[in-house]
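the two lines:
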Amino acid sequence: MTDDFVRKYGPWAFVAGASMGIGAALSREAARRGLNVLMLARGEDQLAHTAHSVRDEFDVEVRTLAADLADPAIARLVEEATADLEVGLFVYNAAVAPAGRFLDVDLDKQLLSVTVNCATPVTLCHLLAPPMVARGRGGIALVSSNGGIAGAVNFSTYNAGKAFEWILAETLWTELAESGVDVTTILVGATSSPNYNAFKETLDPGLCGRRDSDDPLDRARARLMHPNPPEQVATALYDQLGSGPVCWADPDDEFVSKKCLAMPRDEAVALWRGVQMTSTRVPDRQAL
Amino acid sequence: MTDDFVRKYGPWAFVAGASMGIGAALSREAARRGLNVLMLARGEDQLAHTAHSVRDEFDVEVRTLAADLADPAIARLVEEATADLEVGLFVYNAAVAPAGRFLDVDLDKQLLSVTVNCATPVTLCHLLAPPMVARGRGGIALVSSNGGIAGAVNFSTYNAGKAFEWILAETLWTELAESGVDVTTILVGATSSPNYNAFKETLDPGLCGRRDSDDPLDRARARLMHPNPPEQVATALYDQLGSGPVCWADPDDEFVSKKCLAMPRDEAVALWRGVQMTSTRVPDRQAL
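prediction for all of em together
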C-alpha cells in the first residue's frame, strides 16, 4: 500500500497548516506512507519542533516553510519553496475560526477567515494542480468540517468558509479526475487538539447524548465528548483519497452529516444550534 | 401587505447589484412594495437608466451608487451613501461567475469572485445589520444559487461562493432572529437575463428533459429551457423573507435541490455535471 501511495502521490507532500493537531498528524502519516514532506505553518518554533519529530521517526526528507497563509505574497512564497520539489500531494488543513456572534466579531477577523478559508486554498490549488495534471497523477485534499453543511450560532464565516472548501473540492474532484488527479474533502468532527481539549472542558456532560442514538442531535452531542485522535483523521483522509469527493473520519460524523443534509434547512440549523448549546463557553442568548 | 412590508423593512432598501436582471427586479419590487431604494452597480449608465425607470413608475425616492463591489474601500463608500438613510432591507444580489475549468480561468478572476461572492457580503452585512438590530426590525437577503449545493464542472469558485452565502445566511438567520431581523437566502435557478438568454441559445433541446419527471436530472434540464422572469425571483424572495433561512423561486428548483442534498455526494456532483452537459457552450472533456 505504501508503494502504491508513493507512486500515486509522491515524492513530496505539501501540508499547509502542519505544526499541530490534524496538520501534524497529516504530515506524520504522509511520512509514514513514504512521502517527503514540506510543512507550512505560521509559528516557526512549533513548526521546527514538529518537523524535527517527523524527521526523527521516518526515513524521509522533511522541509519547513514558516509563512502566514493570509500573506498576499503566499503564492510566491510557496512557489519558491516548492520550485525544486515534485509535489504529488497537497493538503490544505489550515483554517481561521473566529468564534462568537457574527456582529460581535471584528470585521477584520471575519475577512481574515475568508482569506485563509477561501481565497488561499483557491490560490494554492491553482498553483499546485497544473504540474500534477501534467504528470497525470497526484492528490489534493481540502480539510473541511461537518460545520460546513449548515449555519450555526457563533461560527458564521468559519462554517461558510468550510462550505466553500467542500463545494470547491467537489468541482475539483470531477474536473481533475480525467487527468488522474484525485481530490477529496474530509468533513471533520470533534478532534483532540489543544484548542479542542480546552473547549471540551466547557461542555455540559448532562447534555451530551448517546452515540447509539438514531437522533442526529443526540449523536452529534455524544461525539463532542469523544473527540477522535488527529491520527484517525489523517488515516481516514489518505485511505479515502481517490474514492470520492467527500469523506468522513468517523461513522457518527457521516451519519449526522447525511441526516442533516436531508432535513429541511431550518431543522438542520436548529440541530447545529442544539449541538452548540452543549457548551457553556459561548452563552446562547436565544431559546432554541 | 405593502404597509406591513414597509413597517418591517422600510423606509429604505439597499440593493447591491441592482442595474439588470434579478437586481433590477429586486429594486423595482421593493419600490412597488413602498420602499425607497438605493441601487448599487458598477456601470453608471445602465444603473442610471434602470433607476430612472423605477423612479418613473413608483412614488418613492430612488438613489444610485456607482461602485465596484470588489473595491477595497467598499465599506466606506456604502457607509457614506447610507449615512442619512434608514436602511431596513439589504439585498445582496451581485456575483462574479468565472465560467470555465478551474485551471483554465485566471487566478485573478477566481480571487475576484471570492471577493465579490464571499468577502463583500460579509463586509456589508457587518456594516448594515447593527442599525437594524438596534431598531429591532429589518431584513437581509443574500441571493445564492442552486449551484451552491454541489460542485459542478466550469463553475468552481462561483458554486463555492454561492455555498458560502447560503451557509452564511443560515447563521445570520438564526443569530439575528432574536433581534427581529429577518434573514434568508434564495437558491435561484435559470432566470431570464441578457446573459442567460445568450447561454440558452447553446442548449441542446434534445437533452432538455421533462418538468413533470421524478428524475431530478430530467427536471433540472427542463428548467434550463424555461427560465423564470426576474420578477418571479424578486416576488418569491420578498414573500418568503421572514419564513426561513432558505427559499426558492420555483418548485422545480426546490425539488431538484432537496433531492440533490439527500443524495450521495458523487451522485449530486454527477447530476450537476449532467445539467452542465446540456449546454454546448463550454465543451465537456470528460465522459460522465
